[in-house]
Amino acid sequence: MEYKIQITDEAGNVRQYVVSRNSSSKDKSLNDFILEALQISEDKRKLPLKIQCPNGLEVYPSIKMKFENYGSPILGDKLEAMHITWRD
To answer: How many angstroms separate the CA atoms of 77 and 71, rounded?
Structure first.
């Protein structure tokens, strides 16, 4: 399944994205997460997005890149996964 999404920012700049669903049922990609979020009604998507920390504190999430070894593409490390985390 593939969706073409067009987003217009406040300045009127239009960007187009292609988002496709992962065929594997065990690994969920960022594209899968985006498509799942788009199924939520537009009025609810305007609400703040928060994540609950292990200690119960609610914070705004951050998206981070997880690398295999060194944590840096400058050192030739390969990107392993994307993380949605409670840390900045």
So the answer is: 7
Select from 65, 2, 60, 68 the least CA-distant residue to 34.
2
Q: Which of 43, 26, 45, 34 is nearest to 1 (CA)?
A: 34
Is the torsion defined by CA of 67, 70, 72, 74 positive or negative? negative
Determine contact, residues 72/58, Cβ cutoff 8 Å.
Answer: no
Rounded to the nearest angstrom, the gap between the alpha carbon of residue 32 and the centroid of all alpha carbons in its chain is: 9
Q: What is the pTM of this model?
A: 0.62
Q: Tell me, what's the pLDDT at 25? A: 63
Element (H, E) at 3: strand 2-8
CA distances 59 to 45, 56, 77, Å, are 17, 10, 29
Strand-pair category, 2-8 with 62-67: unpaired
